[in-house]
Specification:
CATH topology of the largest domain: Rossmann fold
Structural class: alpha/beta
Oligomer: single chain
Order of helices and strands: EEEHEEHHHEHEHEEH
Strand content: 15-25%
Largest sheet: 6 strands, mixed
Distance between the termini: 24 Å
CATH class of the largest domain: Alpha Beta
Shape: globular
Length: 244
């Protein structure tokens, strides 16, 4: 594996007012450019792990080493949520460019960055539309574009495709893989869907228990590109399911 970009060392987190941690003794890392899926049941703390890595909340114990700000015009990490959180009073271009404020870019540079990521997600002609004028799948693409616009070292994704239909979900998964391979940023992808994790990730970690811990952390032996129904991939998915 490549040198760690993010490293969690003995990390624990208590919800405010709770005596028992939601998770504890988390030890895992993500290499530069690596795609890692974090799988677990509802309420086990997957999204809380993401928020800790993003710095939105602080762990109750342990240490999280994250990348320093890599330079002007970038952020160390960017978040893609399950609900797209597009601002309804802003057109799509303004939504995509929202995270570029405060990065020291000129207006022309910000506009060029927005053009670049809208082209990347296949929505170059949609910039002047309002959020209510696009589909759920298109809204997820815009949420992804907003994250990519800040050129993060690591993309943090919280079940981003769970609210769309199966056909759209498969298409978005393939588009995400293409973008990841093209841009080379690391991805930490939270999902409860074992098949999705096995298809997308280079490595799958399973979070389980109360308090939760990492009980499975293995590389997917099948390289990209993958066939969803391949025997080897299904065998790996079955091992993940067993760990859950």
């Amino acid at each position: 594996m490549s040198a760690p970009l993010v490293q969690l060392e003995d990390v624990a987190y208590h919800y405010p007012g709770s005596q028992q941690p939601v998770f504890e003794h988390l030890d895992f890392s993500i290499g530069a450019g690596e795609f890692v899926a974090l799988v677990g049941g509802s309420g086990v703390g997957k999204s809380t792990v993401l928020r800790n890595v993003a710095g939105l909340i602080q762990p109750s114990g342990g240490v999280i080493h994250t990348p320093a700000r890599p330079g002007r015009g970038t952020r160390p990490s960017a978040f893609v949520f399950q609900d797209t959180r597009l601002l309804p009073w802003r057109r799509l271009r303004a939504n995509v460019g929202y995270g570029l404020s405060g990065l020291g870019l000129s207006r022309a540079q910000r506009e060029a960055r927005v053009d670049e990521v809208l082209e990347l997600i296949g929505m170059a002609d949609f910039g002047d539309r309002w959020p209510h004028e696009i589909s759920g799948g298109q809204a997820q693409r815009v949420g992804l574009a907003r994250a990519l616009a800040v050129r993060p070292n690591i993309l943090l994704m919280d079940e981003p495709f769970s609210a769309v239909d199966a056909l759209t979900r498969a298409r978005l998964q393939d588009e995400l893989l293409s973008i990841w391979q093209r841009l080379g940023m690391a991805v930490l992808f939270v999902t409860h869907d074992i098949q999705e994790a096995a298809y997308l990730a280079q490595r799958v970690c399973v979070l389980r228990g109360a308090p939760a811990r990492i009980v499975f952390d293995e590389a997917v032996s099948v390289g990209h590109p993958r066939e969803r129904e391949s025997t080897d991939l299904q065998a790996f998915a079955a091992r993940v399911a067993h760990a859950l």
